[in-house]
């Protein structure tokens, strides 16, 4: 899905650039005094840092790579001992991570550069859903269908830890509640026996409805994206990996390597705080003029 809609966006951007339509571009983006004020330029820069931080959140990419490669490795290992053994999982993960991150980076950079060349300083936040393109309408619709399929699957994957936490916590606190703990066998045609839990059904349905309504009420895509990126970038992509590396490698405290790793961690913390400030400011400005249940760019 990612490859499909990214390729469509890139292809349409290249076609727009090749068509010779003149757009206003500059090395530093929007012009102070023409498009925005000096303070707005600074805040937008901070917001952009948050968007970049979200794109750089390797922890989310790692989950997808790990989920796809580990079952394959275990299946291959368990089929038969006489089959040539798989490479060690750490080597397979290193190779898969390198390929996955390199491919993702390539598409991000191309979308950013060619998208800016196509739309200039008026580039929408999302040139597929932000009315950057109108024709051919069937191709835009297909790309947006790919986005929907991708996000529906990603929503399921990333919601599972929260679902599991709430359901486990509820079972431990109310073990005698049949509504929470009982599993009801339902015979589904062409499937077999499916065990239905009413608490799981009600809780997960309510969660999906609430998140969908909140998303429609506050449709500030880029601002929320920057805020999420700012909140997840430092702890998940920088702090915890650095601390785990220091513990695993037993890096001596106050050694040259230890000092520079700590400096990197603190610098990235400052970047996250700046990005969060920019995104919050963007949300505040958007709330002043927004109308509920309408798309905002």
UniProtKB/TrEMBL annotation:
GO terms for cellular component: membrane. Its main location: membrane. GO terms for biological process: amino acid transport. It is found in: Membrane. The chain crosses the membrane at residues 99-119, 139-158, 201-218, 224-242, 263-284. The keyword Acetylation does not apply. Residues 8-285 form the Amino acid transporter transmembrane domain. Keywords: Amino-acid transport, Membrane, Transmembrane, Transmembrane helix, Transport. This is Amino acid transporter transmembrane domain-containing protein. It comes from Gossypium armourianum. The lineage of its organism: Eukaryota, Viridiplantae, Streptophyta, Embryophyta, Tracheophyta.
């Amino acid at each position: 899905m990612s490859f499909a809609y990214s390729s469509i966006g890139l292809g349409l951007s290249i076609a727009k650039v090749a068509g010779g339509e003149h757009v206003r571009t500059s090395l530093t983006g929007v012009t102070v005094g023409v498009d925005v004020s000096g303070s707005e330029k600074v805040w937008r820069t901070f917001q952009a840092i948050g968007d970049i931080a979200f794109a750089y959140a390797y922890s989310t990419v790692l989950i997808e790579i790990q989920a796809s490669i580990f079952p394959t490795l275990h299946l291959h290992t368990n089929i038969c001992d006489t089959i040539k053994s798989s490479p060690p999982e750490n080597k397979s993960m290193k190779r898969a991570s390198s390929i996955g991150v390199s491919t993702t980076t390539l598409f991000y950079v191309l979308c950013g550069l060619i998208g800016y060349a196509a739309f200039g300083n008026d580039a929408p936040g999302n040139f597929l859903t932000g009315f950057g393109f109108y024709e051919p309408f069937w191709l835009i619709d297909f790309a947006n269908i790919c986005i929907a399929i991708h996000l529906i699957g990603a929503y399921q994957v990333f919601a599972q830890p929260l679902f599991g936490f709430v359901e486990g916590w509820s079972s431990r606190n109310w073990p005698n509640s049949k509504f929470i703990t009982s599993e009801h066998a339902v015979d589904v045609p062409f499937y077999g026996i499916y065990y239905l839990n009413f608490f799981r059904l009600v809780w997960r349905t309510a969660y999906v409805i609430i998140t969908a309504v909140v998303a429609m009420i506050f449709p500030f895509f880029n601002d929320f994206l920057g805020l999420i990126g700012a909140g997840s970038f430092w702890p998940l992509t920088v702090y915890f990996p650095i601390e785990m590396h220091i513990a695993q490698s037993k890096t001596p405290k106050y050694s040259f390597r230890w000092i520079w790793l700590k400096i990197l961690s603190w610098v990235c913390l400052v970047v996250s705080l700046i990005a969060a400030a920019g995104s919050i400011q963007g949300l505040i400005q958007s709330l002043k003029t927004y109308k509920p249940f309408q798309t905002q760019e």
